[in-house]
Amino acid sequence: MPSDSPKYLVGLVDPETLTAAEREELHPARIDYNSCDILEIRYDFFDESEWQGLSARIRKIAPKAIQLGTIRLKRDGGTFTDARAIERPALWKKILDTNEIPQWIDLERDCLHDFSELRELTTPKGVKILVSEHNFSRVPSDLELKNYLTDAKRVKADGIKIAAMSNSDDDCTRLYKFAKKAKGFKLIAAFGMGETGKISRIWSLKEGANLTYGSIGKAAAPGQIDIGLMRKAMDRLATATSQIEISSFLNIF
Fold it and tell me: What backbone torsions phi and psi does residue 73 show, to the nearest 5 degrees?
């Protein structure tokens, strides 16, 4: 992916920051919301009675941000019990059957059996699907990443994401290779979690990815960097020549 192509910074929407952003125009959460290119609506953080109105509420305070809807299971770092995975097609239908809806939906790789049904719901609405995988113990092998890429291409996903726990300084090189091979997807995220994966949240944008995630308020994942600092670091990418340069910049803060 060309280095000058658009890069997207994602912030996570939760009940606490959304309420704060709605209450005060100059609240830090609202400023962060408007600093994001994409806002990920974590539906699993909200009461289901609020789901159908969430997109409209968020668009009211951050009208320019693209919205990405997610229902995350516990095995993927969310709050929904894994047993509720079978309920999600019906829940997506409930979310999409309203006037204001996200432009993207996130579906975990281990639920690809739901992809065709979800595509039937999203296509008439013009909603795209990002397939994601989360590994909280390690970075997958090159073969595992190759198989993941094959799966995402097979179902014709619009975007692809891998977030994996980095346990060494060179773990993320496999993710960078994955990002370079993930051509043809509209959104590509490939970064490490944890302390040694922190720099990859930014440097992956130099290595073929165009999507990365920052925190609004409390970090939602290990090694996550707050939105304001992420934006500053991303602005330095065009002239940065090494990860060390970006890492030194982060260390200032």
Answer: -85, 165
State pLDDT tens for residues 13-43: 999 999 999 999 999 999 999 999 999 999 9
**Is residue 13 domain-resident?**
yes
Domain count, the chain: 1
| Cβ-Cβ contacts under 8 Å for 187 (sequence gap 6 or more) | 8, 104, 130, 158, 159, 160, 161, 210, 211
Structural domain includes residue 164? yes
Q: Which two tokens stand for residue 132?
A: 């994601």
Nearest 10 degrees: CA dihedral of 241, 244, 39, 238? -10
Domain that holds residue 36: 8-252
Model confidence at 231, in pLDDT bands (50, 70, 90)?
very high
**Pair 165, 137: CB distance under 8 Å:** yes
